[in-house]
Predict the 3D structure of the following.
Amino acid sequence: MRAAADLTPSYHTLAHRTCLHPVTGVESTSRPIVHILPPETAGDSPSSCSFAAPRPARSGKVAILTTGTIFDVKRFSIHDGPGIRTTVFFKGCPLSCLWCHNPEGQRPEPELIFRANRCLGCGACVAVCCQGAISMDGDVPVTDSEKCKLCGACVEACYAEAREIAGREVTVAQLVSEIGRDIPFFDQSGGGVTISGGEPLFQKEFLLALLRECRRQEIHTALDTCGHASWEALDSVREYVDVFLYDLKVMDDRKHRKFTGVSNDQALDNLEALSQEGHSIVLRVPIVPGISDGEENIGETGALAAGLASVERVDLLPYHHTAIHKYAQLDKHYELRETRPPSDEQMTELAEALRRFGLPVQIGG
């Protein structure tokens, strides 16, 4: 029987705010301001500021007040580990893979997303920007990143939801409270929480506190990692991870440096160490045409995986370019625009090549 959770936060809701839209002049009522306080501060009055930092933890409650920055929480995921899962995406990554499908997770700090196709050109964002960071170029608002303080005023003012801040700070208590809603689905399906990113080990202290709390509440955990971190960091969290989803980008170190920005030496060393410690590992290999789909890379991948006793399966992840629009929204250049996804036939051939090493292979996550 699952132990009853005792992290239910206290909700203090202030009155709705009524204001006039800066351009249309239409009166609107915003969402209520909700303060979520950990249990040990539930008896206190909330701060008057809706963006106030959590109060210091009382003795013995430090872990649940540890804060981190995430950019998304996806519920009912079926491709990020066993069963039905809730996937939490951490911000910050030491790699810069050319094919990254979560570019909003690369930088550790929050950043502005602008969806030009939704913009009405009304100028509401310009009117509310206290920093004078937004100006109109015809019907298109242009943001000066040097002036922008990410205060969120333009996001609130945009009726078309063309503007969004990717990245929010949360405490472990708040995040576990959100995750906890899906515990019945985890129990029925053999699922749990998957921590992805970005690279979760980039926020090691937050990751450790979250994993410990999930373990305390008997929530199955999967860690999706590229392995580019010190062994000390990985060693500190590994006992709280039920399965590692280990990304193996490309075997050749020269190519790895060229296409991800870093060497793969550390990742390969950590992978071997995890296997020697007996951890459950699922290797995830992105198949990017012209980069990782060659016979040599597949052969080296198979030989490595076959020599690791703890590898349970190899997942081949076909490249896709559905994230191209994200790069435009972040005002970033996407270098693989002309790269086409591998065909089903090619994926089948690559899977068969790996199976000849005696490995269980799956196409897709």
User: Anything to note?
Assistant: Residues 4-60 have pLDDT under 50 and may be disordered. The two ends are 30 Å apart (CA to CA). Residues 204-216 form the longest helix (13 residues).
